[in-house]
Amino acid sequence: MRHGYRGRGFGRPGGWQQADLPDAAEAPDWFAGRLPADWFAGPPTIEIDRDEIVVIGELPIPAAEPVDAEQPADAEPPTGEVPKATREGLIARFRESTRPARMQIAQEAQARYGRNVAWGVSVDGERILFTHLAVPVMTRLRQPERKVLDTLVDAGVARSRADALAWTVRLAGQHAEEWLDELREAMRKVDDLRAEGPRGL
Question: Which of 50, 63, 121, 137 is deepest in the core (most CB within 10 A)?
Fold first, then answer.
């Protein structure tokens, strides 16, 4: 059962270190049973890659104050948008009040799946990630690729080549998200077929 969870997972499983660990694809089901029911307004999004599991939940919005019947006729009607200060207060309260429990759950998940766990929240459409993993990735670039990074640095878009490379990866991901999702889904189907093995043997 998926318990209504939405999740994205990609990246092939790790090497021998993770050979005896449960498949991280089951992590949404595990978190469905492990997370307190009153933390989020609905099922959180679980995002998974080779190194990290990110849990992002929508915080419930407090009920709006009733409209004053004696409010002047020329007063502006409520917009329905949550004030910035209210959003910041909700995030701060959740982060501090749940810290010990989140640390315990993260330790359990890390022992189970061999991946770090990061947390984030969404409030009124705004997503905020708490401390999460930044993984160094080594690559070799030829001069044309290096010139692209140096241009971004010289223009002040990025502080360094490493920062410029991260910026280009984020930009590529934004413009190719649909294609990447289709590719990940195809990879999952291949993994499922490989796990089933040949039929009729």
Answer: 121
30 touches 109 (CB < 8 A): yes
CA angle at residue 8 from 136 to 41, to 5 degrees?
A: 115
Phi-psi region of 113 (alpha: psi -120 to 50; beta: other; left: phi over 0): alpha
Tell me the torsion sign for CA atoms 148, 150, 154, 159: positive
Dihedral sign for Cα 34, 36, 39, 42, please.
Answer: positive
Single-letter amino acid code for the residue at 167: W
Q: Please list the ranges in the chain whose pLDDT falls under 70.
A: 1-20, 64-80, 135, 199-201
Note the pLDDT tens digit of each residue in 125-134.
Answer: 888 888 777 7
**Alpha carbon distance 95, 100 (integer Å):** 10
- For residue range 71-104, list pLDDT tens digits in order: 555 555 555 677 889 889 999 999 999 999 999 9
